[in-house]
Write a structure and sequence with these properties.
The structure holds two protein chains of two kinds. Helix content of chain A is 18%, strand content 33%. By secondary structure, chain A is of the alpha+beta class. Chain B is an alpha/beta fold. Chain B contains nine helices and ten strands. The chains are: A alpha+beta, B alpha/beta. The interface between A and B is large, with 92 and 79 residues.
């Protein structure tokens, strides 16, 4: 799918190399989120004739005069019947400038877990508010989830500006309140945009009604926001997924460690530490999917060869720069994802990067009210959609980074050993950037 | 690859193009399965998505061979060009191929031919039988989340019970790039390494990597007839029927299922570049234009997935 018009077709060359942005939307049906997503897809010409025809047909069947763009994104039958979105849905669209993966998440309180899921892979979150209501409890929750998951860029889309006569003071007051709140949670990159998803103002096309707004439309912002971090500013982290040993006539002695760089840059000759063993060696060579190279960076998938024949297997972490101290005591902020509550004493599996170990839930330090950020210390259990701070003890040491430093090597899942259910999403370290950092083993590190 | 390459809108020397990012993610998925499962298999139809899957798997484990076998569910209505391609690929990469044949199941009475002659919906039974008898615990499929609305919520790792059924309420949340492949004996996991690719990405990747495809993806002259608004290939499978006129047209296939349910489009796109230009300008989605099986009903795909279909 791509953004084209009937009159103007980009050549293959123009489409050949763009960057990829993963972003998430948070907002409820009442804020017009489905309409916004539909508008984004429709106005960027990502909706094709047969999809639009199906929407027009369904809208007519329901007695609606205009095509209901929200119908473009409602997937499962249960949702169509209930008119709600019950899970994370992924949508794909492109412009000549960039490819987008949108994690479309429902905004109701009982679906916090879905928002956490969508935000976990997002580099940008769009928080939607209704201009008539301004910043409400739900808005604060969406900002908190984005902050908690360390989504680098946040956009506040103030929707339904058409219903407040496109008045700048209304927008300015909401933007100011939201920015102050999100900043207090440690979100630093906040962009505010006044839109009308229904009328199409500032979503893809600039608004003729709001000439007081000089900023980009939502799509322009999505096209230009920087993608990814700068790997040269991060320590290298390479979780080993698989050991490649052909033992063939052509490659009798080849031994390569396959994985995807979670952060940083690796070069041939770099001094590296293998964790949790702590053995050090150097990078002898790097194979980028069959082609030899002398440099690789996140998030490339490569195969690393080491100078010395040391014992390395799946679950190990090859690391350079400041390395984490392997530990069996994990302190983390978690979002509980399952109807079965999480309680102290529970025996679970903990999956961190490519390593899965047995773990014990030692205690729940406190529960966080995601609407008020209040910490409640008397939590006996964590129920579905609840967020809290827990202490875990693992059977084997883990090379964990703090989640605030590294979203890939600081995150983990808790899994029920009995049936394999994913119970809990975990983020090592403290919840919000503004709180006093915990005394961590790697506190001397100055990197961000 | 060096850090100075220009990925289009470079955000610095370490930017990756969208194809590099998607490739890295898919390779990561293949390696996760190799690390966590005992008996993975790649569903290989000879269609472009399964060909790209195979290409990514070969890259993921180079210079070693891929640690998986291939499984083809043969409806008996395949295009001969596709079967020939399949056999060439198997020989070239010294792969092990399992074939589950719909015809065998019809011959011994375990399946019955449908009145409309289409065999696509009949694939589920042989597929599940092959999974069970070979004890496959992970099954790679080429499904993409952009293909159809019910697929937008599919996980990369999709748990199936002993009946192959997909229960949307039982799917596990998938966060970061942490895939949970744990399953009970008798259950298996369907894995979709191309989840985040679009049709255009697949074609751009085929062009970039110089991947060979069966000829039917490119414009060629063929005897076809119109049914349900699509051009179908004339053949023993059940067409043309009375009143359906065969004509020779310049067409190509955008997707390759079997002859009874895959429609061709009028096209003179003879090269990959032509195809990409055509798709970029297309006003019809890939499946909507060419797959009769998705048109069954608005909830057709959802229902079929519950039955264990892909």
């Amino acid at each position: 799918m791509t953004s084209t018009t009937e009159t103007q077709t980009p050549g293959a060359g123009e489409l050949s190399a763009t960057s990829l942005l993963r972003f998430a939307t948070a907002g409820s049906v009442d804020d017009g989120k489905s309409t916004l997503v539909g508008r984004l897809l429709h106005d960027s010409k990502s909706v094709l004739a047969d999809q639009l025809e199906a929407v027009e047909h369904a809208s007519r069947k329901r007695g609606q005069a205009a095509p209901d763009l929200a119908l473009l994104t409602d997937g499962l039958r249960a949702e169509r019947e209930q008119g709600i979105t019950i899970d994370v849905a992924y949508r794909y669209f492109a412009t000549p400038r960039r490819r987008f993966i949108l994690a479309d998440t429902p905004g109701h309180v009982q679906y916090t877990r879905n928002m956490v899921t969508g935000a976990s892979t997002a580099e940008l979150a769009v928080v939607l508010v209704d201009a008539r209501n301004g910043v409400v409890e739900q808005t604060r929750r969406h900002a908190a989830v984005a902050a908690l998951l360390r989504v680098p860029h946040v956009v506040l889309a103030v929707n339904k500006m058409d219903l407040v006569e496109y008045a700048e003071p209304v927008f300015a007051a909401i933007a100011e309140e939201f920015t102050a709140y999100a900043a207090s949670l440690g979100v630093h990159d906040i962009t505010t945009i006044p839109i009308s998803a229904l009328a199409g103002d500032n979503v893809v096309e600039p608004s003729a009604q709001m000439d007081w707004y000089g900023g980009p439309t939502l799509l322009e912002h999505l096209e230009t926001v920087p993608v990814g971090s700068d790997p040269s500013q991060e320590p290298a982290r390479f979780p080993v997924q698989y050991v490649i040993r052909p033992q063939s006539a052509e490659n009798p002695d080849y031994r390569g460690y396959a994985g995807q760089l979670a952060s940083g840059v690796l070069r041939t000759g770099d001094r590296v530490t293998v964790l949790p063993s702590g053995r050090t060696t150097t990078v002898a060579g790097i194979d980028a999917l069959g082609t030899e190279t002398d440099i690789a960076w996140a998030p490339q998938s490569v195969t690393v060869r080491l100078a010395e024949d040391i014992d390395v297997s799946r679950g190990d972490l090859i690391a350079a720069g400041p390395v984490p101290e392997p530990t069996k005591d994990v302190e983390a902020t978690v979002c509980h994802l399952h109807e079965r509550a999480l309680r102290p004493g529970d025996k679970v599996l903990l999956k961190h990067t490519t390593r899965t170990v047995r773990a014990l839930v030692k205690s729940i330090s406190y529960r966080i009210d995601i609407d008020t950020l209040e910490q409640r210390g008397d939590a006996q259990e964590l129920n579905v959609n609840e967020i809290g701070h827990v202490l875990l003890r693992t059977a084997e040491p883990l090379a964990l980074d703090s989640y605030s430093d590294n979203r890939r090597t600081g995150s983990f899942l808790l899994i029920d050993p009995a049936d394999g259910t994913t119970l809990t999403a975990g983020m090592a370290g403290e919840s919000f950037a503004t709180r006093a950092p915990a005394a961590a083993a790697n506190a001397e590190e100055g990197w961000v | 690859m060096t850090p100075t390459q220009d990925p289009g809108d470079a955000d610095g020397p370490y930017a990756l193009s969208h194809l590099d990012a998607l490739e890295a993610e898919s390779v990561h998925i293949f390696r996760e399965v190799a690390g966590e499962f005992e008996r993975p298999v790649i569903l290989f139809s000879g269609g472009k998505d399964s060909i790209v899957m195979l290409h990514l798997a070969l890259k993921a484990f180079a210079p070693a061979p891929i640690p998986f076998s291939l499984l083809h569910v043969d409806t008996g209505h395949n295009f001969p060009e596709v079967i020939a391609y399949r056999d060439r690929a198997v020989a070239q990469h010294s792969l092990r191929l399992h074939v589950a044949s719909v015809q065998d199941f019809i011959d011994d009475g375990r399946l019955r031919e449908r009145p409309d002659g289409t065999r696509n919906p009949l694939q589920t039974v042989p597929l599940l039988d092959a999974i069970e008898s070979n004890k496959f615990d992970a099954v790679f499929g080429g499904g993409r989340r952009d293909e159809e609305k019910a697929r937008a919520k599919e996980r990369v790792f999709s748990l199936r019970d002993e009946f192959g059924a997909w229960d949307p309420r039982r799917q596990r949340p998938e966060l970061w790039s942490l895939y949970n492949g744990r399953h009970a004996v008798g259950e298996h996991v369907r894995v979709f390494p191309l989840s985040n690719w679009t049709e255009l990405d697949v074609w751009q990747y085929i062009e970039r990597e110089g991947i060979e495809l069966p000829e039917i993806y490119y414009a060629h002259e063929r005897d076809v007839f119109a049914r349900d608004g699509m051009w179908l290939t004339a053949g023993d499978w059940g067409g043309p029927k009375e009143g359906e006129q065969v004509q020779r047209r310049l067409i190509r296939y955008r997707t390759v299922g079997d002859m009874s349910c895959t429609g061709a489009v009028d096209s003179d796109a003879a090269t990959i570049a032509d195809v990409i230009t055509e798709i970029a300008a297309s006003r019809l989605t890939e499946r909507g234009a060419t797959r009769a099986d998705d048109k069954l009903s608005e909830a057709a795909m959802e229902d079929r997935k519950r039955e264990g279909y892909f």
